[in-house]
Design a protein that fits this description.
Layout lengths: L3 H16 L4 H9 L5 H8 L6 E3 L22 E8 L2 E8 L10 H17 L3 E5 L10 H17 L5 E5 L2 E3 L4 H5 L2 E5 L4 E3 L3 H8 L5 H5 L1 H8 L4 E3 L2 H12 L40 H8 L5 E4 L7 E8 L2 E8 L10 H16 L4 E7 L6 H5 L2 H14 L4 E10 H6 L9 E4 L4 E3 L3 H8 L1 H5 L4 H18 L3 H6 L5 E2 L5 H11 L18
Parallel strand pairs: 3-4, 4-5, 5-7, 6-8, 7-9, 12-13, 13-14, 14-15, 14-16, 15-17
Antiparallel strand pairs: 1-2, 2-3, 10-11, 11-12
Length: about 525
């Protein structure tokens, strides 16, 4: 009969074996690929000594195809809770050393348990994915497991922040859970996401493509927009997750943590008085504006390499977590197109769901025209951003720097979409369109009737000047109350901060509905 000491020794030995996952040989193979193990990742992610593991001794129940001879404690995923900067989070990390991290019924049950805990206790949920996909030997049971996870992703959306790290393969059904979460972090060269791999693609379409070309971090960070962040290595990826969490509340009933700063709220930004070029078609860099007005110039950009004609990300304004949305005149003149509309709409809706106020910096000439955009559905995609701003009830402060024309003006957080405080710089042009296009429409017959080219050019310039005086300035919009104030650019930081402080207690609700029917 075993003594108490024997039982304790058995526990210690089983814990040690479980922590080795699939064994030292497979751990070494993981390291040779430039990848950390599941437990090493959690050690770097969580505060030291804070991890509390659940279900360490769970094993799968499958007996098909000899699986009864391949059982490991933990069954290929490490789950539990811990803290990041002292804040409670729930986590899972798939262990590729055990059956390639493949999804089994019991693995799904472990993941679902911590997801339920995260929602119940109002804490962020972080998943580190490194899996070969569904465990084929389990058939429909592994697929059912994915479905259970997806349903929880859906119900947790907008309730707690959900962050996915893709730190290895993620294929087939495995990709849908990260796509349902709020943010996805991929690792360059060692992670990939796709529905079907290169061999299937070749069989079905004849296309020859590598894993990296099909679904690597570079592809999803620059072409598809599936990845919000692409890190150089796993350590950077984990630091990105921690940095992202510092801007987010733990759940939708709380406010984001306040960040102490020594950057004065009243600091003036003299460089902004000179940043707008005299030539209205000449670009400038919106990053300079953002860096000038946010606390300590610190800005965590989301989707940095995708749809670069719009910029979205997080910053602090006098310690308050803030979502920044800004047109980028250096890329496509800051025009709105399909991808930039999707990118910004998703970001605006996230901020609204989690009580993060929005600051919008506007310099937009309109929506991109042409058959490619129209055939791609620019109308239904563009209206996603309009819808997101109109639906949002968080504090919304909009500053128009230069151009704000047509439907794009309405879309970018205007007063009619319940913008709370709308400022404009003296350089702002707010109109249906620019003077050149307007004159061509309004006076084309008169101008074409003039035979003398010199006189024709003189009249064109005269009409442009008239149009500019009437419409292409902020005072016309201010006359109707659509702009609350015209501000000196150097005072932009102070005016935004004061507006956000004024709006800190804002209470606004939308009409009751089961859910909306946002254009998708």
């Amino acid at each position: 009969m075993s003594t108490q000491q024997d039982k304790i020794k058995e526990l210690v030995e089983r814990r040690a074996a479980a922590r080795l996952g699939g064994g030292q040989k497979r751990i070494d193979a993981q390291h040779q690929k430039g990848k950390l193990t599941a437990r090493e990742r959690l050690d770097l992610l969580l505060d030291e000594g804070s991890f509390e593991e659940f279900d360490m001794f769970v094993q799968h129940h499958c007996t098909n195809f000899g699986m009864d001879r391949s059982r490991y404690d933990g069954d290929g995923v490490v789950t539990g809770m811990g803290t990041i900067d002292g804040r409670l989070v729930y986590v899972f990390a798939q262990d590729f050393t055990v059956n390639g991290g493949s999804m089994s019924e019991t693995m799904a049950q472990k993941i679902c348990k911590v997801m339920d805990m995260a929602v119940r206790n109002g804490a962020p949920f972080i998943g580190i994915n490194d899996s070969g996909g569904a465990r084929i030997q389990e058939g429909i049971n592994s697929l059912a497991g994915y479905g259970e996870i997806f349903e929880r992703n859906i119900l947790a959306s907008g309730v707690i922040p959900q962050i996915s790290g893709i730190f290895g393969p993620c294929a087939g059904g495995a990709v849908y859970s990260p796509a349902l979460t709020d943010f996805t972090v991929m690792i360059k060269d060692t992670s990939y996401m796709f529905l079907t791999g290169p061999s299937v693609v070749k069989t079905v379409t004849g296309e020859v493509v590598t894993q990296e070309e099909l679904g690597g971090a570079g592809v999803h960070a620059t072409k598809s927009g599936v990845a919000h962040f692409a890190a150089e290595n796993e350590e950077e990826g984990l630091e990105t997750i921690k940095a992202l969490l510092s801007f987010l509340p733990s759940n939708n009933r709380e406010q984001a943590p306040f960040a102490e700063t020594s950057d004065p709220a009243g600091r003036v930004c003299d460089n902004l008085n000179e940043i707008i070029p005299d030539n209205p078609t000449k670009p400038y860099d919106m990053y300079q504006v953002i860096g000038s007005i946010v606390d300590d110039g610190a800005f965590l950009e989301v989707h940095q390499s995708w749809a670069k004609n719009i910029i979205v990300g997080f910053a602090h304004m006098n310690g308050r977590s803030t979502g920044i949305v800004a047109n980028q005149p250096k890329v496509l003149a800051g025009v709105l197109d399909i991808n930039s509309s999707r990118k910004a709409a998703r970001f605006v809706r996230f901020c609204d769901a989690f009580n993060i106020p929005l600051v919008t910096l506007v310099d937009v000439p309109g929506f991109l025209c042409g058959t490619q955009q129209e055939y791609g559905g620019i109308i239904s995609h563009g209206v996603k951003l309009l819808y997101a701003y109109g639906e949002a009830t968080v504090p919304k402060v909009t500053v128009t720097l230069r151009k704000s024309y047509g439907g794009a003006h309405i879309t970018m957080g205007c007063k009619q979409l319940r913008g709370d405080i709308n400022y404009a710089w003296p350089s702002a042009n707010i109109a249906v369109m620019g003077a050149e296009g307007a004159v061509e429409i309004l006076y084309s017959k008169e101008i074409q009737a003039i035979e003398d080219p010199v006189e024709q050019a003189r009249m064109t310039e005269e009409k442009k000047s008239e149009y500019n005086d009437l419409f292409c300035n902020p005072y016309n919009a201010a006359r109707y109350g659509f702009i609350d104030d015209i501000i000196e650019p150097r005072n932009t930081r102070f005016r935004i901060i004061r507006a956000l402080e004024q709006l800190a207690g804002k209470k606004q609700t939308n009409p009751w509905k089961k859910h909306d029917n946002q254009p998708l």
